Structure formats: structure tokens, C-alpha cells
């Protein structure tokens, strides 16, 4: 790939996406242009990969063919307005901000600019992200597949329409937090039963990883896979009954729904 790739913001997500792309070798460090006001972030990457660590977001925008804007939702409007004059006609602007619509982005960078909204998640840090991709009408199919190729470096991708991004945030953007709470709770229970804390995290996390892999690789219904674990008069069905009695599934659905609602509210601001 010969495009020059920019990153504005090198926090959790910007850093994870950039490192995943670099590790895949589809672009070299010299094709990367980055800026973060926190000086250590770019410098560290520069030492390891010889990327171009620039002094401002504007400079990154000027140099890039594709620019990831990976800053918090409350600063993205200012950043986009600041870089607008530096963008070329064909520069693709990628935003990963939750609750910031293509319309809001276009208001800052211009309605004819190529814009892609992406919703990743933190498993990007270990190349196991799930990213949704939503292009505006200015982006060609060829450009979309370039963006998809870049994001496939950090995990899986699906193209979705913009009205579904709030649901994606519930299902995969925010849900790692819920999954970590579940793992922590599984481990707490196991510690109560005598396992060491360290072993409890390993057993619990591997059970979650393996269950997700089993679902994805067999394509079986989660209910069928649950039934495979529940022996008649066995141990598992006892726990299943407690989770049902305590409203486990309903609590998870409510949590996802609350996440979706918040994302919708943010998009209206
Ligand atoms: N953390 C998560 O699980 C996910 C986050 N997102 C989205 O990703 C975006 C970034 O989130 P995180 O990486 O978690 O945040 P973060 O706080 O780790 O990173 C933000 C980075 O932006 C930098 N920054 C601040 N002002 C800047 C400016 N004017 N120009 C350039 N850089 C600037 C900060 O120094 C920081 O390194 C947010 O919009 C969030 O909605 C999306 C999906 C998942
Ligand atoms: O909580 C947040 O705002 C971000 C968006 C998706 C995950 N974390």
C-alpha cells in the first residue's frame, strides 16, 4: 500500500490501530505521520518504528492521504475544524469518536470531503478488534476496501449503515468493559472456592475466550452451546438457574440499551 497514513491522537485506540497496521507490514513507518500533544507518545513510536512524529495536527493532515482522528469526542470538533484547510480533496478522514455523526464531521471538514466513521474496541491492542466501518457517499468502493484492509490489521471488520453504529457501540465498542466485569466476577467466585487470584483470572479469561471462539467457529446458536455444558442434574444448571433468577440476561440487555441510548444522545448534541 503506498498511501501516507496519519494519526491525530495516540491514546488507547490511536496507538492500538497504528501499532497493528505497522506490525502487518502493509505500510512502513516512513509512511506514517503522527501527532499527539503528549510528547512521549509519538517519540516512543518514533524510536521503535521510525515514523514521522510531527508538531501539529495540521501538519499530519497536510502530509496524509488517509488520516485517523483518534481523539476524545469532546475535542474532535475543534481538531477537525483546525485541520480542515490542510486536507486535500481526496484525503480520507477517519473518525473513531463515539456519538459524533458524519454530518457533524462534514460540518467541520466540508460536505465533499471523504469521511469514514469507524467504531473499534480495545481488543485492538491484541489484534482482536471488532470494527464497524461506515463511509459517506464521497468514498468509492476502492477507497472503502483500502480502509478495510488497514483495519483488518487489527481484527475483524463489518460495514454498517450509520443508524446502526449506536447498536455496534453497545455490542462491541463498550461491551469489553462488561466482559471484564464478568471475568472479574467469575474469578471472585473461583477465589471464594479456593483458587489463587492469578489462576482464577486465567481459568475465567480462557473460558470466555474459548467460548467466543467456539461460537464463532461452529456457527452454532449460543443456546445450543449452553445446553452442551448443562448435564442433567449436573453442576452447571444450578448456576444457570441462579443467573436467570437474578436477571443476568435482562441486566446485560439493559446495559447494552443504556449504552445505545447514551450514544444516541451524544449524537444529538
Ligand atoms: N477506549 C475505547 O474503548 C474506545 C474508544 N473509542 C473512541 O476513540 C477515541 C479515543 O479514545 P481513547 O483512545 O480511549 O482516548 P485516550 O484518552 O486514550 O486518547 C486520546 C488521545 O488524544 C490526545 N489528544 C488530546 N487532544 C488532542 C489534540 N488536540 N490533537 C491531537 N491529539 C490530542 C491525547 O493526548 C490522547 O493521547 C474517542 O473518541 C472514543 O470515543 C472508540 C471505541 C472504543
Ligand atoms: O465509553 C466510550 O465513550 C468509548 C466509546 C466506545 C467505548 N468506549
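^ Assign residues to that structure.
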Amino acid at each position: 500500500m503506498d498511501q501516507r497514513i496519519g494519526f491525530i491522537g495516540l491514546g488507547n485506540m490511536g496507538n492500538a490501530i497504528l501499532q497493528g497496521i505497522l506490525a502487518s507490514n502493509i505500510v512502513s513507518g516512513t509512511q506514517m505521520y503522527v501527532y499527539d500533544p503528549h510528547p512521549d507518545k509519538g517519540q516512543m513510536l518514533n524510536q521503535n518504528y521510525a515514523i514521522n512524529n510531527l508538531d501539529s495536527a495540521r501538519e499530519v493532515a497536510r502530509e496524509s492521504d488517509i488520516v485517523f482522528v483518534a481523539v476524545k469526542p469532546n475535542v474532535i470538533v475543534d481538531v477537525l475544524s483546525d485541520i480542515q484547510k490542510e486536507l486535500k480533496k481526496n484525503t480520507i478522514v477517519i473518525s473513531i469518536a463515539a456519538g459524533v455523526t458524519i454530518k457533524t464531521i462534514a460540518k467541520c471538514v466540508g460536505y465533499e470531503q471523504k469521511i469514514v466513521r469507524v467504531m473499534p474496541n480495545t481488543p485492538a491492542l491484541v489484534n482482536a478488534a471488532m470494527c464497524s466501518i461506515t463511509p459517506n457517499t464521497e468514498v468509492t468502493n476502492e477507497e472503502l476496501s483500502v480502509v478495510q484492509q488497514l483495519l483488518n490489521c487489527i481484527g475483524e471488520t463489518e460495514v454498517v449503515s450509520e443508524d446502526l453504529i449506536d447498536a455496534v457501540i453497545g455490542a462491541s465498542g463498550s461491551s469489553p468493559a462488561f466482559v471484564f466485569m464478568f471475568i472479574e466476577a467469575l474469578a471472585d467466585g473461583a477465589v471464594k472456592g479456593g483458587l489463587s487470584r492469578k489462576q482464577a483470572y486465567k481459568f475465567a479469561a480462557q473460558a470466555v475466550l474459548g467460548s467466543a471462539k467456539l461460537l464463532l467457529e461452529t456457527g452454532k446458536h449460543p443456546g445450543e452451546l449452553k445446553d452442551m455444558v448443562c448435564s442433567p442434574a449436573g453442576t452447571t444448571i444450578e448456576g444457570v438457574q441462579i443467573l436467570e433468577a437474578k436477571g443476568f440476561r435482562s441486566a446485560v440487555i439493559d446495559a447494552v440499551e443504556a449504552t445505545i441510548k447514551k450514544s444516541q444522545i451524544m449524537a444529538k448534541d
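The pocket of NAI (ligand 1) is lined by residues 8-14, 35-38, 41, 57, 70-73, 75, 79, 96-98, 119-122, 173 (CB under 6 Å).
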